[in-house]
Amino acid sequence: MSCTSALTLAKTAIIDFVARVTAQGGPDFVPPERRIAVFDNDGTLWAEQPVYFQLQFALDRVKALAPQHPEWQTKEPYRFVLSGDMKSFAASGTKSVMSVIEAAHSGMTTDEFEKTVKDWLRTARHPQTHQPYTAMVYKPMVELLAYLRANGFKTFIVSGGGAGFIRVVAESLYGVPPEQVIGSQGKLEYQVRDGKPVLVKLPEVQFVDDKEGKPIAIQTVIGRRPLAAFGNSDGDLEMLEWTTSGPGSRFALIVHHDDDEREWAYDRRSRIGTLDKAWDEAKAKGWTVVSMKDDWAIVFPWTLQAPTRDAR
Amino acid sequence: MSCTSALTLAKTAIIDFVARVTAQGGPDFVPPERRIAVFDNDGTLWAEQPVYFQLQFALDRVKALAPQHPEWQTKEPYRFVLSGDMKSFAASGTKSVMSVIEAAHSGMTTDEFEKTVKDWLRTARHPQTHQPYTAMVYKPMVELLAYLRANGFKTFIVSGGGAGFIRVVAESLYGVPPEQVIGSQGKLEYQVRDGKPVLVKLPEVQFVDDKEGKPIAIQTVIGRRPLAAFGNSDGDLEMLEWTTSGPGSRFALIVHHDDDEREWAYDRRSRIGTLDKAWDEAKAKGWTVVSMKDDWAIVFPWTLQAPTRDAR
Looking at the predicted complex, does its ipTM rise above 0.95? Predict the structure, then answer.
């Protein structure tokens, strides 16, 4: 690995795995077309605190659309969002949160949605770092993606977030083209408007790409079992299990958020990115666990070289 | 195009289109990552008569499974299949046909299904040509796939047939890897058996990749609009409309089955591969229509150079 800022403790494990599966004539050699690597996005490739960025997009979108929906001023959970009462919004339940996400992601064509996301990403800033959301990617993980591709791997994103949302940035941030982004999906409807076909986003969920949904989506879309999988939470557990239970050499890695100085520290009891069962299974099965605090010299591309503890 | 047996009348149109979108600095230039070409499978890349090959697989599978299902001997539509009464089976309706397909495609893991399809393809023979089904591919179309790839295109299959079925042969027959095969999907269930995860095929349809389902699946899986689309029936109409309505140079082609000597002749009134509305729209919009009879020197790889009418 040519990058000096990349994974340190986990680095050996990754380099060793890549060396084995790419060694022609070796017992663990895997031809390039089967070198599939899958990456979770939120909390694995970019940050997910204080809320998933796509939820922040949805909240901003509800505010932007509010003038066209006067009824939202008195209707829950919209009125919580519009009055900034995020505590009541969070307490209103998953179904309620989903209805806001659906409202923000529907009633437009796929082309219009893409433009809306692009515009938001250009102007929105992270509430704590004040950086653009596109700057909240993990530098070591971006380098890891490139390293795997340089070794013949095809890199896929397999995210609980919406595929259409992630695709807007996946190529520029991660070098992953749209057709290698797998994610949750809303229902689409084919319509012909003024003689031109459009795909309209409906306020209904078609597929949730989380937990057991991840191996199901991998089989549905990719059609072969990955060689390596990278995640950070219990939502990735089934994807890691599915990947590592295939024959031959396999690799699983979990990013542990344990750096409350440069990023955030959370795991077993976190509402976002809960890492509990997957942590136990990682230890039981010998999966690689990366400590952001100890293993990453740099977290975000815009942070300077970190203090001594990271410069080892 | 280096291949002498390839499309003749349509050849100029294809070569002209490819030349325009690959001419760097030209007004129609498209960078390689956006050169997406989508192909229907049944009737476009391989034959679909006298019945879709996957339906034939399902019928053979019902016969193979019959000893384990004594109740099928008296239960419709299974008893039609087991007694060879295909007329009654065909007349029993779409729902009935679907139930046979679901029965033949479920109750096993995805790995077991892959093996079952492989075994069937090795032994089954086409009822009329007595060739293996894998020999029923159209030579000019296989050459076209390779020609497009040689010009930087990424080729996808977008089929009403099952993705899991087509993936078994797509790489060896067409050079298309599993992750570039889009098709209809049954529901999958994630289970852990003896500590090992498996994906079990359920007897329920998850997605039908036909008609308006094709552009929806293209958007869902690929996430960008194709540059070129190839089909043969009304089931491909929305895919061709969606493809050609994008900005810039686009290309649409329909294979017309008009050769009852070397293949089959059918179009507007056919039960299988109906070509009616899409034919009218092809004429109205100037899409390229290939005559198998007039434009193809060779249809199947195992046929000799054809009589004078094709050797022009």
Answer: no
